[in-house]
Amino acid sequence: GETLGTYDYKFVWVGQFHVQRHKNLLVSLLVEKTYFKTTKLFAIRDRQTQTMIKFGSYYFEVVSKAMNSGQQETNTHIVNKFNRHNHTFIVIETQTLLERPRPPGRFRVMLQFQNFDCGEYQTKHLPCSHLMTACKSVNVDLMNYVLLLFTLQNILYVYNNSFDLLLHKSM
What we know:
Layout: H1 2-54, H2 61-74, E1 77-83, E2 88-93, E3 106-110, E4 115-116, H3 120-124, H4 129-137, H5 152-160
Antiparallel strand pairs: 1-2, 2-3, 3-4
Helix pairs in contact: 1-5, 2-4
């Protein structure tokens, strides 16, 4: 009985050792594949970003998309109140787009503090339609509210970073 128990214990331990060894092998293959895919993706995005800069673009395409959709929404917004002392606006939505599940509302826009009640700017770090409406009403350059993070030069800096050589664990 005791010999069989010890044998069973050793067999289970050896089995766990092999499973663990193969699990590590699978993880290392996954890491290796992810590493090479990421390296390839970064090289592609680096070339795309350089091409965009070459053709005169300054901001990442996410900014352009956000600006276009926000510009469409500004047609349905009205600046109701404006306080010159602290650059605070009350922007009223007359209607909202179908993809927004909330009713039209009133939103405070404080340019000086970069604080906007809708929460979109704080979430996405991109100008919201309320900010665009406020800036348009007093001829303030909206690009002052686009973070440098979204410039193509900054993005190119990220993609230009090289990856260190991934050594196999046997080396």
